[in-house]
């Protein structure tokens, strides 16, 4: 079982109005198995496993207006302290820290540009037990129209140090936490459809073959947002599951599938 260091993305889960559909789609796509939490207060929250190790979760939306979405959780030793830092840095506290049974303590925030993210303070559940391997989360990236504001915000909140990296046609930043690059940030150019939209965090899963996985997703009822292609991150594609939740696939063994140093 791995324990992810504080300041590092450690977990992802899906908020969806159709848990039954998610329990069919993602195991067929990634080879996951699912375990439904037995506690009534967990509302059917499902932990997905790959080769017996926890990799992601899925649960009902927080409210009737929440769109299906994959969320990024960053590990922390103190969710309450992060809350203070988020407020001081100009972010929003969407959900104040609370204990998730005996699994851990979490909170939900939005950065000044509107990108929503969560923190996870582990107790019984440390976060993902498998990362950077086929069928597991391998990268997390902020897409933001305000890179300078994001650099200031995340450095204050998590101590991340931004490192600008040239990418043809885009402004790309790596977030360094200690000795490692733990996540990234992409600023779309003005002619990109994402330009001017609210900021968001994207979740990437590693797969052995991006093209085959994208084709498989479409047969399962998903749709392709960005067709498979080679990028400085590696070969990737962006998909939507049958309920509309966006996620990306990154080919294992290429680019940054596996956070680089």
Automatic annotation (TrEMBL):
Put simply, this protein is called VOC domain-containing protein
**Highest taxon, organism lineage:** Bacteria
Which is one Pfam family of this protein? Glyoxalase
Xref: InterPro entries: Anthracycline_SecMetBiosynth, Glyas_Bleomycin-R_OHBP_Dase, Glyas_Fos-R_dOase_dom, VOC_core
Matches recorded under PROSITE patterns: VOC
- Every copy of the VOC domain together lies at 8-122, 136-252
Organism expressing this protein natively: Micromonospora rifamycinica
Which Gene3D superfamilies does the annotation name? 2,3-Dihydroxybiphenyl 1,2-Dioxygenase, domain 1
């Amino acid at each position: 079982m791995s324990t992810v260091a504080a300041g590092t993305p450690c977990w992802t889960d899906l908020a969806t109005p159709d848990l039954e559909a998610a329990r069919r789609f993602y195991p067929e796509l990634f080879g996951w198995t699912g375990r439904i939490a037995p506690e009534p207060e967990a509302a059917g929250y499902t932990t997905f496993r790959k080769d017996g190790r926890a990799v992601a979760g899925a649960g009902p939306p927080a409210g009737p207006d929440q769109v299906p979405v994959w969320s990024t959780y960053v590990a922390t030793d103190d969710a309450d302290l992060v809350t203070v830092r988020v407020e001081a840095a100009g972010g929003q506290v969407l959900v104040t820290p609370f204990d998730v049974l005996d699994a851990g303590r979490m909170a939900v925030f939005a950065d000044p540009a509107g990108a929503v993210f969560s923190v996870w303070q582990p107790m019984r559940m440390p976060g993902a037990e498998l990362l950077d391997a086929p069928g597991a989360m391998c990268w997390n990236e902020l897409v933001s129209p305000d890179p300078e504001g994001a650099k200031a915000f995340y450095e204050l909140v998590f101590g991340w140090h931004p490192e600008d990296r040239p990418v043809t046609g885009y402004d790309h930043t790596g977030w360094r936490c200690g000795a490692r690059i733990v996540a990234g940030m992409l600023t779309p150019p003005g002619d990109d459809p994402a330009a001017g939209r609210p900021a968001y965090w994207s979740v990437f899963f590693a797969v052995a073959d991006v093209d085959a996985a994208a084709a498989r997703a479409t047969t399962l009822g998903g749709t392709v947002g960005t067709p498979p292609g080679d990028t400085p991150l590696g070969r990737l594609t962006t998909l939507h599951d049958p309920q509309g939740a966006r996620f990306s696939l990154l080919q294992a063994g290429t680019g940054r599938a596996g956070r680089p140093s």
